[in-house]
Specification:
Elements: H1 6-15, E1 20-30, E2 35-41, E3 54-58, E4 64-67, E5 69-73, E6 78-84, H2 91-97, E7 104-111, E8 122-127, H3 132-144, E9 148-154, H4 159-163, E10 169-171, H5 176-189, H6 191-195, E11 199-206, H7 207-219, E12 227-233
């Protein structure tokens, strides 16, 4: 989200109160050295939510950051966010590091593009650490409909995938060839499902890497309508 003057952000919170929820942190948990899961509590009655939607958190006077909720439970009024704390000098990381149980904040309600296709037989999420929350929300929706879920994440600490119950492919950071090899293996094993358009690929995370993977999948015979994508960050642009 772009940086805006403080008065504009203050005004938005005041004149659009229906777009915000007052949330309380009820639990924090370090999944790895760079991943922290935080559970929020608020009244979620009537709040629209779909996998890959994002909430907005105001990290300072001028800036909001987007994060993907999962474990979205309207009845209990809770949801989780998995934060990637990659750089303590970044404004978003500093803010998240400062949070603890009992803290309260205004959160911009979930919104975004409805990428999830409930008709698909296989849901394949591809991304990096910033994609983990999105993958978890897709996994929950897929498995609730008895559909198959797979994922491929570029990770510094792949052991975190086991902690999160995200079993699938993983590749080292900055190794595009390993990512391509893993996708090639899947395309060969599930050729019939891919040809029948029964597989939906959700590509999120690094915008540059996302474009490369999209081109590769299309070149590998995946129908463009079966590729859903959303960039979360790009080198040189502000973000968490």
């Amino acid at each position: 989200m772009p940086s805006l003057p403080k008065w504009i952000n203050d005004t938005m919170e005041s004149v659009l109160p229906s777009k915000f929820k007052d949330c309380t942190i009820i639990n924090t948990e370090d999944i790895s050295n760079t991943l922290r899961r935080i559970r929020f509590e608020t009244d979620l009655t009537g709040v629209d939510f779909s996998p890959t939607y994002a909430i907005g958190i105001r990290i300072n006077e001028r800036d909001f950051r987007n994060y993907s909720p999962f474990n979205f439970d309207r009845e209990r009024g809770t949801f989780d966010i998995l934060f990637h704390l990659h750089d303590i000098t970044a404004a978003g990381c500093r803010y998240i590091e400062s949070l603890s149980a009992g803290d309260t904040m205004k959160v911009l309600l979930p919104r975004g593009r409805k990428l999830f296709d409930p008709e698909a037989k296989i849901h394949f999420s591809v991304g990096d650490e910033t994609s983990l929350g999105s993958s978890l929300s897709i996994k929950e929706a897929a498995e609730s409909s008895d559909r198959l879920f797979l994922c491929l994440h570029e990770m510094e600490e792949p052991v975190a995938l086991e902690t999160l119950d995200l079993f699938g492919y993983h590749t080292p950071k900055h190794n595009t060839m390993k990512t391509i090899e893993a996708l090639t293996c899947f395309l060969n094993e599930e050729k019939q499902a891919v040809d029948n358009r029964e597989v939906i690929f959700y590509i999120t995370g690094n915008g540059k890497k996302m474009s490369l993977i999209r081109r590769f999948l299309k070149g590998g015979g995946v129908d463009p309508t079966c590729i859903k994508s959303q960039a979360y960050w790009m080198e040189g642009k502000k973000g968490l």
